[in-house]
Write a structure and sequence with these properties.
The complex is a heterodimer of chains A (611) and B (196). Chain A is 38% helix and 17% strand. Chain A has 611 residues and is of the alpha/beta class. Chain A folds into four domains: 4-196 and 206-231, Rossmann fold, CATH 3.40.50.970; 234-341, Rossmann fold; 369-545, Thiamin diphosphate (ThDP)-binding fold, Pyr/PP domains (Rossmann fold, 3-Layer(aba) Sandwich), CATH 3.40.50.970; 551-607, 2-Layer Sandwich (Alpha-Beta Plaits). The two termini of chain A are 34 Å apart. In chain B, 39% of the residues lie in helices and 19% in strands. The chains are: A alpha/beta (611), B alpha/beta (196). β8 (180-185) of chain A pairs antiparallel with β2 of chain B, so a sheet runs across the interface.
Chain lengths: 611, 196
């Protein structure tokens, strides 16, 4: 359940996550419509709206991808309803095909896009792309909050700008703002309209030439207006000969240093930036340090504006262009230029060097259906098969002992690339794709390989939920975001309609079933789709918990166990513990999936007798 | 004065909910609160560090190196991972001695350190180190080890490692677990009464 403090009384101070504070800001701005596709670190925007939408009488949906979520918001906005959508940085790649033209046509109701970047890839496996550059490409205004309070405040400004200038506005966060908590002072929730009408306005909502060029010019005029009117939200603090220009979370890292005799510019509106603001700030400065994660977006602009000035400008000459920053890193780089002595950590380093800390990486949950699928696939196809991975919990197959991802790139790409490989190589290619990913971007990939005729084995992992981001329902879950009954779109029906005749449906939790399906698939000359169907174990756990029930437990008969280590090291369920040659199932951890007895060669594992 | 608390444990241990309770309690005390949370990929049985800072005013949501006042380790080996933020003049540790052996250590032929060894490695970073079997006690008296996280807040409180009142913590528990307040409040009491 979402954090109830999001709906706290006006004037109250509460602790909110950045994402939750954005939702509050939206609710204070007359929000009427919302849609999103989950993606860490943006998901709590949608999750909070999903939980509260009914209560507030507004609309929310988990759309099947980010582009569709954005388009739904465009529809609402064209009818005058204020809307918000949220996505992670790669989600914006998907949405941008529609975002860019809508910037030209403009919107009617406010339309705010929350894009959560993830420097360092704490929860992303694609790239460290910087949405500020994307926004420049599309001429989209960008607000960059530094903390939870600003997430709420800037959401309000974003709605105001969007409504007034009839342009979509981006709130760009990074993991340490979207997934950081902070004290937030709440304002008054404003009820927005939830229904409207599309007013025919011939010529307004399309970009066909020659109108295209005029509209482009109009966008630039809008940006100039926003620059004039909203540069005031940028802040200048302190005084000195050394200046620091920063934005977002980096501002907090700079402030953490408690610097004196330094002048700081905080860019809250990081696109467009007013040249006059930079010029005014630079007056009397000898050097300027630009502190920004990822790309030198502000730095390049500052260099351009201060081209004629004799001010030394530092930016990426000091700071890395990759990875996440921290208070330490910022202090370490700025200290010498600001004439500050840093604490010496040599002794601390030596002590840390003595620690022996075991590796701990994320794992598939105990009882996860994907583990069973991977185990069966490795058994049947062997490691000479080329494994095409995709985005979801099953990306974790990349690690030992499964090694079922030879490449992982982007949503739906595993199957798209598998097709290309099959066109030039005779190698066996097996692609894995989750159900939510199938509805997001997998369907076109299967249509393409069917139409253009190639024959990888496509394994669709149907656990009936978007699991990785925290159990959001998707098109085959049978319920919608609001918990209401919805159409269950059967994956096999879709795949059949896309022209695939070899479809095998197997129970993920049955090794016999899975291995049989894979064997049959391996004998086919044409494309095969294997649907591995088994409910997400974590989802089942929650469903049982609600009914006051738990899982049956399995245990290992130590007399029968031959210490072959198949269950502990090859099947490798985290509930199965091995210390040297002693192997047992940790009772508390066992989620009773019943697959480990199927991989045991001597029937040493069985269901515990009922007490 | 800023008070820095680092929670660390394994996804699924209740690291997040313990931090939410303390954040709410600190807010009730009138402190400015900042911190981090971790969601998504990192949760799946991975290491979960959660930073919580409160005071008159806080900037960075993450604790600077060697500046933690309290480290609550819900898993002993994870407490080791938190030592980057610890320093013996400043940092208190409350560590649950309930190990969750990571599967990857085993697959990479790493030995999980013995409990005594973990204590020895933590000592050079600790002003005070408390190793408690909070999960075990909660399993015995409340029927579920999951309450161990709240018992550990109680242990920290009774050892004067938190500038928060018992009253605020109880109020925060009520807000955080409206349906399961009784057991959580009992877990806090178990921690408050805990003695080595």
């Amino acid at each position: 359940m979402a954090n109830p403090d999001i709906l706290g009384a006006s004037g109250k101070k509460v602790v909110l996550l950045g994402n939750e504070a954005i939702v509050r800001g939206a609710l204070e701005s007359g929000l009427g419509f919302s849609a999103a596709y989950p993606g860490t670190p943006s998901t709590e925007v949608g999750m909070s709206l999903a939980d509260f939408a009914k209560k507030l009488g507004i609309y929310f949906e988990w759309s099947t991808n980010e582009k569709l979520a954005f388009e739904a918001c465009v529809g609402a906005s064209f009818c005058g309803v204020n809307s918000i959508t949220s996505m992670k940085h790669f989600g914006f790649n998907v949405a941008s095909d529609s975002v860019f033209p809508v910037v030209y046509t403009g919107v009617r109701g406010a339309l705010v896009i929350v894009v959560a970047d993830d420097p360092g890839g704490l929860s992303s496996a694609q790239s460290e792309q910087d949405t500020r550059l994307h926004a420049r490409l599309g001429n989209i205004p960008v607000l960059e909050p530094s903390n939870a309070q600003e997430c709420r405040d800037f959401a309000k400004i974003a709605f105001e700008i969007s409504k007034k200038y009839e342009i979509p506005v981006i709130i760009r966060t990074t993991t340490r703002t979207s997934h950081a908590v902070g004290t937030v002072k709440l304002g008054k929730i404003k009820k927005g309209i939830t229904s409207g009408e599309f007013r025919k306005d011939y010529g307004r909502y399309y970009n066909i030439a020659p109108a295209l060029q005029k509209l482009h010019g109009k966008v630039l005029e809008k940006l100039a207006g926003i620059e004039r009117e909203y540069s005031k939200i940028n802040k200048i603090e302190g005084n000195g000969k050394t200046g620091i220009i920063t934005s977002g979370i980096c501002y907090e890292y700079v402030k953490e240093m408690g610097l004196k005799n330094v002048k700081i510019a905080k860019l809250n509106l990081s696109n467009p930036i007013a040249p006059e603001f930079i010029k005014k700030f630079a007056k009397g400065l000898k050097k300027i340090i630009v502190v920004e994660e990822l790309e030198p977006v502000i730095e390049q602009f500052v260099n351009q504006v201060l081209f004629d000035e004799k001010i030394k400008i530092y930016g990426k000459s000091l700071f890395p262009r990759y990875g996440e920053f921290s208070a330490e890193l910022v202090a370490e780089k700025i200290a010498p230029l600001a004439g500050i002595k840093r604490q010496d950590f040599k002794k601390h380093d030596a002590l840390l060097g003595k620690l022996k800390i075991p590796i701990r990486r994320p794992v598939l949950c105990q009882g996860c259906p994907h583990r069973s699928t991977f185990y069966a696939a490795q058994k049947v196809f062997g490691n000479s098969a080329i494994w095409a991975g995709d985005i979801g919990c099953y990306t974790l197959g990349v690690y030992e002992p499964y090694f079922t991802d030879d490449f992982v790139l982007s949503m739906g790409s595993g199957t798209g690339i598998a097709h290309g490989i099959k066109k030039v190589s005779n190698q066996r290619v097996v692609s894995f794709i989750g159900d939510s990913t199938f509805f997001h971007a997998g369907m076109p990939a299967i249509a393409n390989l069917s139409y253009n005729k190639s024959n990888p084995v496509v394994v669709i992992l149907d656990n009936s939920i978007t699991a990785m981001t925290g159990q959001q329902p998707c098109a085959n879950s049978g319920i919608n975001a609001l918990g209401e009954g919805a159409k269950t779109i059967q994956i096999e029906d879709v795949v059949k309609a896309l022209g695939i005749s070899n479809i095998k449906i197997a129970n993920s939790y049955s090794q016999k079933d899975m291995q049989e399906a894979f064997k049959q698939a391996s004998e086919q000359k044409e494309a095969v789709v294997v649907i591995s169907r088994g409910i997400c174990r974590l989802l089942l756990k929650r469903q049982l918990h609600r009914k006051g029930k738990g899982f049956a437990k399995y245990s290992i008969d130590q007399e029968k166990c031959i210490k072959c280590r198949i269950c502990s090291d090859k099947y490798a369920c985290p509930a199965i513990i091995r210390k040297k040659n002693y192997i047992w199932i940790e009772r508390e951890l066992c989620w009773g999936c019943g697959v480990c007895p199927q991989v045991c060669p001597v029937n040493a594992i069985s269901l515990e007798a009922k007490k | 004065m800023i008070h820095n608390v680092l929670f660390i444990g394994v996804g699924g241990e209740g690291v997040l909910s313990a931090s939410v309770v303390l954040a709410r309690a600190a807010n009730l005390e009138g402190f400015e609160v900042r911190g981090t949370q971790l969601h998504g990929l990192a949760q799946r049985g991975g290491s979960v560090p959660i930073h919580l800072r409160f005071g008159n005013y806080v900037h960075s949501p993450t604790i600077p190196r060697a500046k933690a006042d309290l480290i609550i380790g819900l898993e002993p080996a994870e407490a080791l991972r938190a030592c980057y933020f610890a320093e013996r003049k400043r940092t208190n540790f409350v560590v649950d001695a309930f190990p969750i052996v990571p599967i990857y250590a085993r697959l990479n032929k790493q030995e999980y350190p013995e409990m005594k060894g973990i204590g020895k490695m933590l000592k050079p970073f600790a002003k005070k180190l408390i190793m408690a079997d909070a999960s075990d006690i909660c399993e015995k008296s409340l029927g579920n080890p999951v309450y161990g996280n709240i018992a550990m807040l109680g242990i920290a409180l009774s050892n004067k490692m938190l500038p928060i009142s018992r009253k605020s913590l109880l109020a925060a528990l009520k807000e955080t677990f409206p349906k399961d307040y009784e057991n959580n409040a009992r877990a806090l009491e178990i921690g408050l009464k805990w003695e080595k």
